[in-house]
Amino acid sequence: MPTGKPLSDYQLGQIDLLHEQGASQSRISQFLGCSQSAISNYLNSKTHQGLETTSYGRPKILTPRDERQISKLAATGQYSIREIQRELPFTVSKDTVHRSLTNNTDLEWRKKLTQPPLTQRHKGARLEFARKHMSWDKEWQKVIFTDEKKFNLDGPDGYSYYWHHLKKEPEIFSKRQAGGGSVMLWGGFGYNGKTELASIPPRTDSLGYQEVLKANLIREGPKIGGRGWIFQQDNASIHASRSTMDFLARKNVRTLPWLARSPDLNPMENLWAELSRGVYSHGRQYRTKQELERQIHEEWANIPLETLQNLNDSMKRRIFELILIQGGFTKY
Q1: Is the dihedral of CA 282, 286, 289, 291 positive or negative?
Q2: 30 and 75 co-located in one domain
């Protein structure tokens, strides 16, 4: 009996991704256009090879005392998983710390972020965007993702992640009125690097925004995205104005049409979160805008290329998840 065409490495990667996200073998088969038996054989072969399961248990890495130390640090609400790993007096992986916390019934990961409501029209547009870009692979490496971010002296807007101990009162973050002052910055990144951060004055208009792009994006775009680079921005009024779009057209900048109410699809949001974790680690606050901005630029310079590439690569997973959930909000 003739055998079917072997699955490509790309298809195998898609199977792994969709399987991890809970898609059934039937759903994966329909999505990839290959037989369900081929998918079943692949997943079963991984199990038999011990890549997904093993017939033998392994000893626990952490002692009860280790678990209590991790829990104690997390319950302060001041440490990320990576920071907990660094603070511990013993060597352990970040994944082990994460497992310890997620298995702790006294702790809950709380996220004080709001999401804009999605109507059916928004979901339909998101789903159409995902289907249009589902075949993109290396194309994402050409995209430069950009955004603005406000940093307050007392702590970041919309960034309050912490491990909450269920037996304690919810964490209250001390803030002066209006955060005690703030700075607004523009930045961008792609697979091969990041732009400089640019200060944006309050109430910047389209012409002011174009000056930021001229000084930072236009020069750095080809270096970061390579030949045929693509510019991503959201639909803020100064971004989508006729003046700005005409400016980009004159500069021959190729743009990626973006979706309304879709911060979860822009990996720049995740990069801002990574930057904020460094700037505000251990609940740090600042006395002056100059002090805050110096720390922001220092942390930005220290973000490794690997982080940028991992975020860029996540676009393929975001697109697949968006299709699976029919245009709803992704976990990102």
Answers
A1: negative
A2: no
Distance CA 60, CA 58 (A): 6
Note every long-range contact of 19-24, with CB atoms under 8 Å and residues 24 or more positions apart, other chains counting: 19/43, 21/320, 21/321, 21/324, 23/324
How many domains does the chain fold into?
Answer: 3
Judged against a pLDDT cut of 90, whether residue 80 lies above it is answered with: no
Q: 289-301 and 267-279 are packed helices; what angle lies between their axes, rounded to 10 degrees?
A: 120
- Mean pLDDT, the chain, rounded, equals 85
Whole-prediction pTM: 0.66
Residues 44-78 have pLDDT tens digits of: 875 434 333 343 455 678 998 899 899 888 887 77
Question: From residue 327, how far is each of 22, 37, 131, 136, 199 by CA, in Å?
Answer: 16, 28, 10, 18, 34
Residues 73, 36: one domain? no
Q: Domain of 75?
A: 64-104
Interval 279-326: pLDDT, tens: 988 778 899 999 999 999 999 999 999 999 999 999 999 999 999 999
Q: Are residues 281 and 312 in the same domain?
A: yes
Claim to verify: residue 298 and residue 209 sit in the same structural domain: yes
For the chain, report the end-to-end CA distance as a whole number of angstroms: 45
Closest to 245 measured CA to CA, from 210, 289, 281 = 210
pLDDT at 239 over 90: yes
Q: How far is CA 265 from CA 20, 56, 67, 153, 224, in A?
A: 19, 40, 35, 28, 20
